[in-house]
Amino acid sequence: MTRKASMLALLVTALVAVGATVLVTQSQSSTRQAKVAAKGAQVMPFDLDRTTHQFTKNTTGGVQTVTADDPADATQIRLIREHLTEESAKFGRGDFGDPATIHGGQMPGLAELSKGYKNITLAYAETPDGARLTYTTGDKALVTALHAWFDAQVSDHGKHATH
Description:
alpha+beta; five-stranded mixed beta sheet; 5 helices; 5 strands
């Protein structure tokens, strides 16, 4: 085998290995997202397939918005608002049990948020098609924790969430 052919064979082998790794990673991600969706259905009263979570990071924390995909879907809008009202009260007491139930107790940012909740201002607001929670803190470590928590939710919720 010539040096050129040997290099080509090595390159093809490497590309096949990378492709296999990507497929395995995508399969693991899809499996995790399916598990999260199933657990989410036990905690969140609204239909994940008819709603979208949006997590917008900013320099003081971020904004979590949940909206009905159909702005005329009054049932989903009501359920979103009820759920985020409850979550706002729980988070304000340091109770992040619902996200832990859905995403696991080792979810990035969760431990820090549970410990530092008194240093986070949480504001609930209704939107025309759902509701939002705004998280604000002057503590840079908590901003980092919020951002990690947002990223984990976007990853875990897959097609049901965006940045």
